[in-house]
Structure formats: structure tokens, C-alpha cells
Design goal:
CATH architecture of the largest domain: 3-Layer(bba) Sandwich
Number of helices: 11
Strand order of the largest sheet: 3-2-1-7-19
CATH class of the largest domain: Alpha Beta
Helix content: 10-25%
Largest sheet: 5 strands, parallel
Distance between the termini: 35 Å
Oligomer: single chain
Mean pLDDT: 93
Number of strands: 26
CATH superfamily of the largest domain: FAD/NAD(P)-binding domain
Structural class: alpha/beta
CATH topology of the largest domain: FAD/NAD(P)-binding domain
Strand content: 25-35%
Length: 443
């Protein structure tokens, strides 16, 4: 019986392996994934589809990672059930694997709404390398594509397809693209850049049907909108978003809300079971609540904290928050924390606009503490703001400089500048797990 079993072979699972092996060099450890690949960087799948990178360049760790860390990698098999009373997981082929401690790091699964024709050949989702491989292998002869969803996934696949010479129409249910990570002004700048690349954006629209080729030939003929308009296309990508992948635990006693509920140790309601990453509702240090924050760094850090606790050494998750950094269609955007106060009282909003340059900066404060920020096309100083937000620094004495063109570390008060220019805390070999967590949180 493996002492440690990890379901999921992405950032959270790898973080857990590394933390476990820091503490326990000998305990048996298995990692299970329904994907057949070694751990790779999911944010790079759009570059793979565009033909700009390869699997080898996408690898998150070397191919020797599993051997070097004495990990039994069970790849290409899906966990279909978790029995917390019997302490075992069941694989799709019926095999049962017992565990001493379990980490659920299953990530998210694409949300595909009910839509006539969504199962046709030529309709894809776009969250895994397998999705990108299947799509790339069938692009010959594709001239027009419809991407359903104007969020991060939709815009990333749109750029990749555009680079392959395909004419793309983006269909977005809301009134603007990237509406979760940008306010109206930020979205407008993004839309202008996307349209300049030849992409058509159809906001306030939805696809209700995907038609097949005449005569019953395999493939896609068009996407039909709710208003009856028909968009001829050879390929459709459903990129509406992802939801926590909880299917393996849905019949267990593990507490769930939108995702799996965890505490600050990344422990679930079931004994010896932990969760992290996109599947987990973990602590958000900006909003001071548990919620889904499905981004790569949070998954990795959550995995490390879970790994420490799985070995029996207590570690506290310092918290994460929503943070997105993207560079598509010539746009550089960083968005973190609270994006829009939505009319709530007590918030102060600082903005700077240089629209002729496509530059937009916005910082949201509450009681002189940064609650969120958005930088478009002038992102160099976003790392400083991220650190100030994470550490809940009172910026009242210098907040007017936060959106200035010449803002940098020298704009900070001397004592604060000295503290932030000093060496970052590094966990020593004998450091307590809590100290390691704090050190990780500032990287």
C-alpha cells in the first residue's frame, strides 16, 4: 500500500511530491493521472497549438523527476471513486489502490453547456495537451473557426488559431471579453487589440446549435446563434471555462461546495484526505474567505502545504488570490485580487490612462490597503504591487505614487524600501513547515 497517493499530475501534485520528499525520503508514493504525459505546463498549450513549442519544452519537470523522487507514476488511468472509509481509490479499469494519506489535485474540467451538435467531429475543448494535439492534427483544410467563450481560455486558443492562419469568430455570452479579470475599460483595450488581428467578436451572444456537413459527412458546417444567425465554420472550440473536477469524490463523504472545501492545512473533512489547486476552495488572503482561485502558483503552493501536512509536519497555507498574467495579441496584462468593487462602499480607486498608448492602470484600495489592481501594457511594476497587497502593507503615505509612470521601489518609505530590498526569507533545512510556507509565499 502506498503511504501517499496523489490524484493529479500537474502543479499541485508536483508541489506535494517535492514537499513530501523534503521530509520523508522513504515513504512509498504514487501519483495517478488520466493523462499519459509526464507533468507539463498547461499554460503553454496555446503555444503548442500555434506550433511554437514542443512537449519537451513544455515539461514542468524533467522526465527523470519520478525516478529521482521514487514516485510510482500511474499515467493514463482515471480515478473513478474515492472510498474514505476503506482508504482506497478505484481506477477506471477496476483496480483498487489503498492509501495512507491522499491528495486530490484533479484540477478542473471544461464546462460544456447543453448544445445540439456539441458531440460532432470538429468540436473541441481546450484545457489539456491532448486537446491541443487533437486539434492540431486536424487543422489542415480548416479556414474558419468559432470559439465559444471570450475568457482567458477562449482568447488563448483564438490567438493560437489566428497564428495558424485561421479566421476566428469569438462568441461571448456577456457584453465584453475577459470580463472576469478586467473592468469595462480594460476589456475595451483588449477587444481593440483582438479585432486588429482580424478576429470578429460577437458579444451578448450564445451558440445554441452546431450543424454538421451536408449529406452526413463528418465535421462541422456552422454554429447557430440564439437569434438564428448562422456562422459558417470548419471547427468549433468550447472555451466557456472550467469547473472543479470533483467526479472522483462525488459519492464520498468529503465536504464540497463549488469545489472541495479545505482548511488552512489543505485538509478536507475526511481523515487523511487533502485537496489543492483548481478543485479546492482554499483561503483567499484578499477577500478573507475560502473560494476557488484556479491559477497555477496557488495550485503549486497549496500542493506543497498539503505535502508537508501529509507527512505529519504542520504547515499553514498563507493564502492565494486571483491573479492572471497574460500576453496575447500584443497585449501585456496583469490583473490581481479584486478587479471591480461593483459599487460597494469603502473602496478607493486610483486610475491612470494613456489610451493613445493602450496603457491603463487601476489600483483598488480599502483602508489604504491594496485589494486589487489591473495593469494593461505597463506591467513592469506589478510585482511590487503584488507584494504590497499580499503583505497588507498600509500604503496611505505613498498611494499617489502607485500608478505613477516612475513608480518603483525608491517610491516607498525608507524603512519599507529597506525591508523589501533585503534578502527574502529562505527556509533552512531545519526550518519549521510554517516558515517554509511563508518563504514560498513571497517567491
Amino acid at each position: 500500500m502506498p503511504e501517499y497517493v496523489i490524484i493529479g499530475n500537474s502543479a499541485g501534485g508536483i508541489g506535494a511530491v517535492e514537499a513530501i520528499r523534503e521530509v520523508d525520503k522513504e515513504g512509498s508514493l504514487a501519483i495517478i493521472s488520466d493523462e499519459p504525459y509526464p507533468a507539463y505546463s498547461r499554460p503553454l498549450i496555446s503555444e503548442y497549438l500555434a506550433g511554437e513549442t514542443s512537449l519537451e519544452r513544455m515539461l514542468y519537470r524533467s522526465r527523470d523527476f519520478y525516478h529521482e523522487n521514487a514516485v510510482e507514476a500511474i499515467l493514463g488511468k482515471k480515478v473513478v471513486g474515492v472510498d474514505v472509509d476503506g482508504s482506497f481509490v478505484t481506477l477506471s479499469d477496476g483496480e483498487k489502490i489503498e492509501y495512507g494519506r491522499l491528495l486530490v489535485a484533479t484540477g478542473g474540467v471544461p464546462f460544456v453547456p447543453k448544445m445540439e451538435g456539441s458531440d460532432r467531429h470538429g468540436v473541441y475543448t481546450f484545457t489539456t495537451l491532448g486537446d491541443a494535439e487533437r486539434m492540431a492534427s486536424r487543422l489542415a483544410g480548416v479556414r474558419r473557426a468559432v470559439v465559444i467563450g471570450g475568457g482567458l481560455i477562449g482568447i488563448s486558443v483564438t490567438e493560437a488559431l489566428t497564428k495558424r492562419g485561421i479566421v476566428v469568430t469569438v462568441v461571448e455570452l456577456k457584453d465584453r471579453i475577459l470580463n472576469v479579470i478586467l473592468d469595462e475599460e480594460g476589456s475595451r483595450i483588449a477587444e481593440e487589440a483582438v479585432r486588429r488581428a482580424g478576429v470578429t467578436i460577437m458579444a451578448n451572444s450564445t451558440v445554441t446549435q452546431i450543424t454538421g456537413k451536408p449529406g452526413g459527412a463528418p465535421g462541422v458546417h456552422s454554429a447557430v446563434l440564439a437569434n438564428g444567425d448562422e456562422l459558417p465554420c470548419d471547427l468549433v472550440v468550447v472555451a466557456i471555462g472550467v469547473v472543479p473536477r470533483v467526479d472522483a469524490v462525488v459519492n464520498s463523504a468529503i465536504q464540497r461546495n463549488r469545489g472541495i472545501v479545505v482548511d488552512r492545512h489543505m485538509a478536507t473533512s475526511a481523515p487523511n484526505v487533502y485537496a489543492c489547486g483548481d478543485v479546492a476552495e482554499a483561503y483567499d488572503y484578499v477577500l478573507d474567505i475560502n473560494r476557488l482561485t484556479p491559477i497555477w502558483p496557488n495550485a503549486y503552493l497549496g500542493g506543497r502545504i498539503a505535502g508537508y501536512n501529509m507527512t505529519g509536519r504542520s504547515a499553514i497555507y498563507p493564502g492565494g488570490t486571483g491573479m492572471n498574467s497574460l500576453n496575447y495579441f500584443g497585449l501585456a496584462i496583469v490583473s490581481a485580487g479584486l478587479v471591480m468593487p461593483d459599487g460597494q462602499q469603502g473602496y478607493e480607486v486610483l486610475t491612470e490612462r494613456r489610451l493613445e498608448e493602450g496603457v491603463y492602470k487601476k489600483v483598488i484600495l480599502r483602508d489604504d490597503v491594496i485589494m486589487g489592481f489591473t495593469f494593461v501594457n505597463d506591467i513592469e511594476k506589478s510585482g511590487i504591487l503584488s507584494g504590497l497587497m499580499r503583505d497588507k502593507v498600509d500604503v496611505g503615505g505613498f498611494k499617489q505614487y502607485l500608478i505613477a509612470d516612475d513608480f518603483d521601489l525608491t517610491s516607498l518609505p525608507k524603512a519599507l524600501r529597506k525591508a523589501r530590498l533585503g534578502p527574502r526569507p529562505q527556509p533552512s533545512a531545519g526550518a519549521a513547515p510554517q516558515e517554509k510556507a511563508r518563504a514560498l509565499a513571497v517567491d
